[in-house]
Amino acid sequence: MLNGEQDKYMKFLQTKKILIKKIIIIILILAMQVTGLGLFYVYQGYVYNFKTSYIKKIYLPISKYKLKNVRNLAKAADKKIINEIRQTKSIPVLLYHGVIEEDDGYNTTLDDFRDQMFALKADGYQTVNLEDFQKFMKDEIVLPKKSILITFDDARKDSFYPVDPFLRTLNYEAVMFVITKYSMVPQDSDETFFLNKKELKILSDSNHWSVQSHSHDGHDIYKINNRGKEGYYLTDRLWLESEQRNETKQEFRQRVRADLLKSKNILEKELGKEVVGYAYPFGELGQDDEHNYSQAEEVVIEEASKVYSYSFHQVWTDPRKRTYPDKDDFLIRRIDVLAGWDGEDLVNVLDQTEDKQLPYSDDFSTNHGWFASWGNISTTDNSLYLTSTRTDQGSMAVLEGSFLWKNIDISAEVNIIQGDSFSLIGAYQDNSFLACNFYEQGLSLTKYNKARGIEELISETNLANILSLKNTKAKVGMRVSEQNISCQLNGSDILVINSSLPNINSEGGIGIRTWGNLGETEVVEIKNLQVKYINNN
Amino acid sequence: MNLIAKIKYFINRQRLKTKGWLFFFVLVYLVLLVELVNIQKFEDNIWFNVYSLGIAVYILSRFLLAYFYEEPVCDINYEPTVSFVVPCKNEELFIAEVMRKMVEVNYPKEKIDLIMINDGSTDNTLSEMIQAGREIKDDLGVSVSVVNWEQNKGKSYGMLAGTKIATGEIVVFIDSDSLVDREVLIHMVKYFTNKKVASVSGHTEVYNKDKNILTRMQNIRYYVEYIAYKASEALFGNVMCTPGCCSAYRRSILLEVIDDWNEDKFLGVRRAAYADDRALTTYMLEKGYQTLYSSSALAQTIVPDSWKVFWHQQLRWNKSWILESFIAAKFMWRKNPIMSLSFYLGFILTLFAPIVALRAFVWYPLTTGQIPLFYIFGLVVIALIYGSYYYVRTKGKNWFSGVFFVIIYSFMMIYQLPLAAIKLWDVKWGTR
């Protein structure tokens, strides 16, 4: 009897042992399965947006890079230290849209993007995040010389999935500007082009991305008059169909304000992080000729500045590509990364826009940052050529990276091949500048003011010897200092004015210009340009 | 050298098994992935997404539950008397072998007897029976009774008569085309030490599994049906069908229900006519008895090797399934909550299967112009799970035919269920 009881007890123990073993096995397997599911849940976006070409175009190059990087670790560390020693007074902000497979003439191809990212890294560039960018703008921190802010507009899926692996690998960060109307929609399962709410939450929570506003309704086309003419949200007073009239200025302002607030509120509510940046739709600020409201730009900027700390736009025609804490406060300039740029092109652009050190001498062996505001420029045989065709009224080149210069002497050799005028430009600031104009009758000093849109004459001299510039190499010069402004020809001051005159600014970039009438062509050759600090003795 | 070869063999076997399980769990992971995607898109089509989730839960939970099923240890002191009851018709070629296998079981010969019922055979079955019976009695001293009916009455009448005549504490029903293993009785009777146990199903394998693709497929179906489904039901003592090919019943309980069972009609249909075994099990369960499954009590049965016969067998089973599920649905809620949940889930999902299939293959392609990839993917993964489960548990070849089986069987069932419901009152194929 006792034996039987014992037997039963042993059997019970055995069963219990087996049961515990089985439960442990099941828990282990379940844990593995749940972990697997969790991984899938987190990375499912990569699964859905995967393209087979990504293996070749993203993952293989990244693996190769990582392998190489391990070998070159010591070297890379050295390079970084060198870069961090020098500080920068300006920062380039890059603008991308989608990163695509086949070139469409607008977006960046994946091959180019990869090349650009690796080129930036190889050249020692490090991205800053939006927080550091803000601190930099407020002069709270200093940044190393090769700092850069990368931004993406529209929050397309293909501006995240092919991009993120590079950011992670290179330890880069980026800002995503979201069109809330397209991305933050309640039903997010069918959207295949724009990132959805869930994905943006992932971006926002990751430490590689910051999510900011790109307007709510701003990307649609709207009717702006009774004949059905179409215009944009932020540049035009829209046509109110129900009342058969255009909206009033007040209504325009209210609508803009509401939209600015709407996208900010949606993002902050859904992502739980403060939104401080706003990127203008289409880069439009009302500067388009086709708009029906001339004060749109002012109103939009004024309203945007009430809602956001920083707004981002594109610079296409302005020679100044970089953003300076001293010069820019609310409007941030962005360099539009054009289709077809490879890594070398991008690094060149960044090099050209870099702040240049004085004394500066340009041999024009290549274009070191001369930007054609209008007309055409080219560098050949150690000369810079300014040319204007019959349809232009001249040509003007501004040297990028010279915008912080002051108290300088500019000198250059000039040869007017065609046409009869030439100007040296100084104190260039946001399209306002001073110009020493050399022409047939003499020499003048003028001041161009962007806001007023006119060129004022400050001083003028009649001289007969200016024609000698033609087909001879004359030495021209310009001095821009806090004390005085002067224009020089062949080494002697011809025209001198006092800088203390009202509205004269003596700080800024340099440039060269030729002008003429419509239907004429001008060609000017410049050689051996030198810029140095003024000798104050 | 021999030892090394043995170790190598062992490692190789383990590796094969590990690979198999890995494959199995990758498939399970795939199912879970699909369901995760599914849950995230829940609002899209809530009913069909719930259905898909239900199917996954149902099937995977069965495999999980079956894993916890353990055979009890044999009680060597318990040896009740056993009567084999074999109703048969026109089995002249096979019957002697069937009888011989039964008496050759590893069990005291004085505790077993055979009751053979010749249900109106038109061939030499009767004389074969008598001949074999005489030999058995002479050789082994096992008593063999033969009941001869000139007119065919039907299998359930045979079972009824057999039970009435039987003297054993345990009655084992064996199909006239099933061969039992030597150890079958030991592994079945051990369950009956528990007084609540009314019946125990043996584990039936397919005898003619290598005959053609159809039998190969049925082999895997039988295997998974027993090892996963019956085992999981046995965990709660609620095996929904202890099949006629080889199952043991406690005679005292059998006698309580067998008269009612043979006569009872549901919706005007005699229940025992379609699937006697399932109806009998339902009776037991309704009375609150336990029905169990022994994976060690082996028997082999011959399955249809022609599509036509298979089709009619399945139709009959489906009819029985409809009838008995409705009846069981009336009381299953009283059972163990997990068991009853699993039962109702399986019941409802199967009922809706034809609608879901119709939507996937007709409505969906017509309205969206797309192939129902999601549905097909689900079906293939489930099929692969069956196949791989068979493979890792048995290392049997032809596991891949299990994949075909699930797909073909699914379509057949989807088509047959409504057909069976319509033809419920057509008993032409009901009699056997």
Q: Strand content of the residues of chain A, in percent?
A: 25-35%
Shape of chain A: elongated
For this structure, the CATH topology of the largest domain in chain B is Spore Coat Polysaccharide Biosynthesis Protein SpsA, Chain A
Gyration radius of chain B (Cα, Å) is 23 Å
CATH top level label of the largest domain in chain A: Alpha Beta
Question: Could you say which structural class the secondary elements and strand pairing of chain B correspond to?
Answer: alpha/beta
Classify the helix fraction of chain B into a percent range: 55-70%
Low-pLDDT runs of 5+ residues of chain B are none
The oligomeric status of these chains comes to: heterodimer
Number of helical stretches of at least 4 residues of chain A = 11
Please state the average pLDDT score of chain B. 84
Strand content of chain B: 5-15%
At the fourth CATH level, what is the homologous superfamily of the largest domain in chain B? Spore Coat Polysaccharide Biosynthesis Protein SpsA, Chain A
Count of spatially separate domains of chain B: 2
CATH topology of the largest domain in chain A: TIM Barrel
Brief rundown of the structure:
The complex is a heterodimer of chains A (537) and B (432). By secondary structure, chain A is α/β, with parallel strands linked by helices.
